[in-house]
Write the structure tokens for this entry.
Amino acid sequence: MNRAVLLSGGMDSTCIAHWKRPKFAITINYGQRAAAGEIRASKAICEALGIEHIIVQADISSLGSGDMAGLPPSNSAPATEWWPYRNQFLITVAAMKCHALGIQELMFGTLKSDSFHTDGTGPFFQSVNHLLGLQEGELQITTPAIDLTAKELIEVSRTPLEILAWSHSCHVHEISCGFCRGCEKHFNTMGKAFGHQY
């Protein structure tokens, strides 16, 4: 079975890539402010792991909100980085590319802690998977880490520091700002997982 991971270059999708070693990794430039950093990180991670890296351009920056779009957050936002229907869009675009490549499984790096976003929950991914199953093709969406914390994912996947060091979690810039929620999560998780080594 041909598999792919939707690789943002962040810690979670990096661990999925290291753990599951799919044939392909798909990174989408959808107009997010940190796109250049995410692409750079994803490329380095794929080179280190021997995974074929595919970049898809699909700019929807005019439809965004919050930190990732450089706009005020929506009134519906559960967090400042929230972008309406982002995961649904990313899955749809990645699914189109998977169909063209004959990929049967697309892995998404959502965690237990992502459930405060409705589109990070088990029911959301089950619904999307069902929707894809009603259409042509044989693509399935899987979430290998949905029951794990970030620290647990690092431990289960046995992702070494030298691979995670490439990851880019900043929400607002191609070079980590150190202050956004993505950077805070990155530093906190790395500290818990690696302690003084980091």
In short: Helices lie at 11-20, 35-49, 86-101, 122-133, 150-157, 161-164, 181-194.
